[in-house]
User: Fold Homocysteine S-methyltransferase from Nocardioides alpinus.
Amino acid sequence: MSASTGWRLPETDAGWVTDGGLETDLIFHRGLDLPDFAAFPLLDADDGRAVLADYYLAYADVAARAGAGLLLETPTWRANADWGARLGYDAHGLARINRDAVAFLRDLADGSGVRDTLVVGALGPRGDGYLAGDLDADRYAGYHRPQLAAFADAGADLATAYTLTTVAEATGIVRAAQDVGLPVAISFTVETDGRLPDGTALGASVESLDTATGSGAAHLLVNCAHPDHVTPGLDPSAPWSARISGLRVNSSRLTHAELDEAEELDEGDLAELASGTRALADALPGVRILGGCCGTDARHVAAIWDGWSPVAGAGHK
Assistant:
């Protein structure tokens, strides 16, 4: 189904659970070495697949307990041309690993025990997730199209692009997804002031993206920021805020620059993070997806979902 046909996330009784900080969990809790912060090479080894399966099934348990749907998102945030080349993957190898990631999660979905499960092809920015890139949307479309095509070929239900720092890259990704006929969601990251790393206000970014793509993104999210950093960028009364369907929050209040330099994991205050995330979600009328990002694991996501649903949230009444 083409993203331009108006695909929207299906309704469930209690929203959609997604996972947490995959890479930080694998590095700090499971002792794995992830060069260039890339998890996708784990798919090429049986023991790596076993670790990934254990990781994802913990979130299936969260979804089952919450009575929610489950978004299983591929470990392919770094599986694009520039990062792949650094890790020894050429274009053929990347196409294979992106298809394999979808097939791997499809098998997990079938045995997850969660009725409503979607397999999501996850992609990240071309460059650093914390630095603004260039402003050539067409170049970004060409760059990201092969990964999106691999997801589509493998039968992913949709794709989501995470930690985007510019409207230009988001626009290119939406156009590329439309080219290959795959619904796509866009997730921006923000700094401590609620603005994108290039200084653009979150609301202006949402509006610019929708204008440039004809509202071609299936839905929008914000990720890789603490709830206290997202809040300054929000205006729940503005029409654009209804486009935000998901939040994937950091456990830490550290800035992106500080996180880059951190040698120890800041897991934050679990109860405080959960309450802050729920309050943020309740203020936004469209939020149906909750999960974590850097520093979070299944404990954080379980705490966020403890007693929360879109139906119960104040912003959804």
